[in-house]
Amino acid sequence: MERRTIGAAALAVGAVGLGCMPMSWAYSGSRQRGDESLRAVHRALDLGSTLLDTADMYGPFTNELLLGRVLKERRQDAFVSTKVGLLVGEQHIVANGRPGYVKRACDASLRRLQTDVIDLYQLHRADPEVPVEETWGAMAELVQAGKVRALGMCAVGARGGRRSGTRLHDTTLRQLRRMQQVFPVSAVQAELSLWSPEALESLLPWCEARGIGFLAAMPLGNGFLTGTLTPGEGFEPDDVRARHPRFTAEMMAANQPIVAGLRRIARRHGEDVTPAQVSLAWVLAQGRHVVPVPGAKRARWVTENAGAAGLRLTAEDLAEVGDLPGARGSWD
Question: For this structure, is 27 an active site residue?
Fold first, then answer.
């Protein structure tokens, strides 16, 4: 698989990564199978999808434990990315950016992952009660201690709150500028897909101008852009899509022209090419430092996603993608 670099440290990873969250968190708990997930991780590494993206809050903790079972055998094949800064309660999630907590959380992640170093340690969310410089400074000390190789930041999602008159990523950009004064930011992770392209406005250009890697989260639109979901089929109560304004039966039906367009483009490239691969190829075409991180928990989907690294969209394809209708949600 093609290799891409993350940050000034030129950390090399496969062009398509693996988002491990669905194996333990946020999507249809009844369909989560540990052995099946382990096979998916091994398949990703076999195919060159070396970036494994997790977080201590996924589960919580169980996602890192699962990856640790693979890393114990194949640490040299993997690029390990995990996150810190969010605590999961019974009915809520809160930020914690206190330096002491960050250092303890890193040690705990290292134990669960069964490794002595984390390749990319990401701040999941900035704590509004702690200056971001203090949190970032504690993370920088972890680099200096040899426990972490590089640092990254996760941007607030496209459905996060914002004040009227502001761009989506203004707050994240202000935080990033402050963090850069303390220690280099190697990567930024934010949602980027055909139906959530907001990062193209300011966040991705900011990263490109500074040689910062960009990890494209949810590049398949929470699974919608794969074309495998049926409008009205419904989701389990623990599935984040059950509360997503684009996943009501009405809106899924209204957004089908997007999938139809992706299928047209896929057919031009061969019978085996899928809408998901076209979606990921579009993300890959947004820049040399962009690495899509599609979530998957089955080896079948991992294999399909990895195949997108070899798909090259033509100028005609990209123009057709640009002409597809924008995604609609129940707020529209």
Answer: no
